[in-house]
């Protein structure tokens, strides 16, 4: 099973919570971190197998777009060794 990391960035907490809820419900992913960037920008990071993460990020992006401002969404399949420790610990 190949692992992936998925990210959803929003402007505001409410769309991020909605996106995170949609991601957790849409696929078998683990919510691993919420990052507060500043200026009301926030990111949720999830991980799981590539297909699940893609489905979760798509569902989260749709949910955030309907409720507020989706800034960005991205899936990183097979992240490089050390990426998690460098950015998400």
Write up what this structure looks like.
- With 89 residues, the chain is of the alpha+beta class.
- 43% of the residues lie in helices and 40% in strands.
- The protein is built from 3 helices and 4 strands; from the N terminus they run βαββαβα.
- Strands 2-3-1-4 form a 4-stranded antiparallel β-sheet, covered by helices on one side.
- β2 and β3 (41-49) form a beta hairpin.
- It is globular, with a radius of gyration of 12 Å.
- The mean pLDDT is 94.
Q: Which stretches of 5+ consecutive residues score pLDDT under 50?
A: none
Q: How much beta, percentage-wise? A: 35-45%
Helices, by number, come to 3
Specify the structural class. Answer: alpha+beta
Shape category? globular
Question: Could you give the count of β-strands?
Answer: 4
How would a textbook summarize the main sheet?
4 strands, antiparallel
What is this structure, in a nutshell?
The protein has helices at residues 13-26, 50-67, 83-88, and strands at 3-11, 30-38, 41-49, 69-77. By secondary structure, the protein is α+β, with helices and mostly antiparallel strands.
Helix and strand topology:
Layout (H helix, E strand, L loop, with lengths): L2 E9 L1 H14 L3 E9 L2 E9 H18 L1 E9 L5 H6 L1
Antiparallel strand pairs: 1-3, 1-4, 2-3
Helix pairs in contact: 1-2
Give short descriptive properties of this protein.
89 residues; alpha+beta; 4-stranded antiparallel β-sheet; 3 helices
């Amino acid at each position: 099973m190949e692992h992936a990391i998925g990210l959803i960035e929003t402007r505001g907490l409410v769309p991020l919570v909605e996106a995170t809820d949609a991601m957790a419900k849409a696929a078998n992913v683990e919510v691993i971190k919420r990052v507060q960037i500043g200026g009301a920008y926030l990111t949720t990071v999830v991980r799981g197998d590539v297909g699940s993460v893609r489905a979760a990020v798509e569902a989260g992006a749709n949910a955030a777009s309907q409720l507020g401002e989706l800034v960005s969404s991205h899936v990183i399949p097979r992240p490089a060794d050390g990426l998690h420790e460098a950015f998400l610990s």
